[in-house]
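Anyone? Bumping this.
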Amino acid sequence: MRMVNLRAPYSARRVVLVLAVILALGFLLLPGQLQSGFQYIGNPLGWIISWPLQVVAGIHDRIADVWGRYVALQGVEEENQQLKRELDLLKEQNGQLREASVATERFSALLEFKKQALPTSVAAQVIGRDTGNWYKTIILNKGASDGLQSDQGVITPAGVVGRVVKTTASTAVVLLVTDPNNAIAGLIQRTRDEGIVEGTTQGQARLKYIPLLSNARPGDHVVTSGLVGGFPRGIPIGTIIRIDKEEEALFQSAELSPEIDPNRVEEVLVIQSPSIPNEGERLGVPKLKP
Amino acid sequence: MKALLYFVVIVGVVPIQSVLLPHISLWDVKPDLGFVAVCLVGLIAGELDGLLVGLALGWAMSLFSAQDLMSGAIMKGAVGFVAGLAGRQVVYLSPVVFVAGLLVVSCSAGLITPFVLKLSVQQDWWWAVWTIVLPQACLDAVLGGAIYWLMWNRLNIEQLMSESRM
């Protein structure tokens, strides 16, 4: 390998280079709040990129569809039989749940609990994954022009997917519940103990800050508590698979198996207006009548 | 013409990176096509082009990631600038040397990234090195080496470098 030092003469190109380096270093000194301005400026670029992104995602889905329909058909008969058995079981469970639901409604009316309003939600498709390796996110085909904003909750019928962290005009980035940088207020359904659900580096989730006196155990379901974070109360997050209790610790924590498989999510609902109960409603304090 | 080519690169890399590359990920780590593209631009066209394309591509990629915009832009811009400086010092660059260079620069950039990003306490430096930095550097080197090898066989890289730096 020959090495040579090409000394370029002083030129306008060099001046531009110096200015560009100074500009780049200047960006580093900008406070975080100003970055939202760059996000806003980036909207047109994001809109332009969203077109090829959706085209590539469409081609990818078409190929995956053809593969799924015609190539990967081995074992379909066996799977069909198993699904029929599961369907029968679910029908039976559905009947029981209907009964339970009717009873719950009756009791709720008796106790004058305010019925939780169904939140407004927007359906969106997953069209991509994070462009880097440091965060676990998915990209949706709906954005700010569809009413999506940061911190809105994202769910599927199976449970919590994550929350919106960034939007362009026509796309949104969702930080998954399994990302260690995500935190969602959770509640153990059986014991009613509250905590914070964080993702783990192993792709699972962890419920932290469970009171030491809680009798939570593996198999308990964890749902959203509805206090903060853009989710209404009662959306499934995961199932406890292990309780960790350290000596002299003030709290215990629990490892969760998330209800959703982040790698298989295709369609989601973005919650636009969760009904977050105020402190009085949460504590069951009856409203004063005029 | 050059600006149009850079625009196509920026607009084309993001969909490929977010839709197609997750399918060739190993242990949930995928190569960074943007990093490879910026290295190639810096190496062939010089430090100014590398810096500007790196800033723009980093910014565009950050729009589709949870990473903050500035750190993404600055990291890619710095990589493009370093690639340009390296390209100025080297006249003949074989694919093997390019792969080794990519490995070193990708590792260096990856080692800095955990300090730049405000990551969770679970994601400490050692975790980052073993689970993201080293696998990604290897994948970047393989992908970059393959692209450079194709270019090396079909184009006169030395002529391209001297023409682009005029």
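Late reply, but here is one note on the structure posted above: Helices of chain A lie at 12-29, 35-41, 43-71, 76-110, 279-283.
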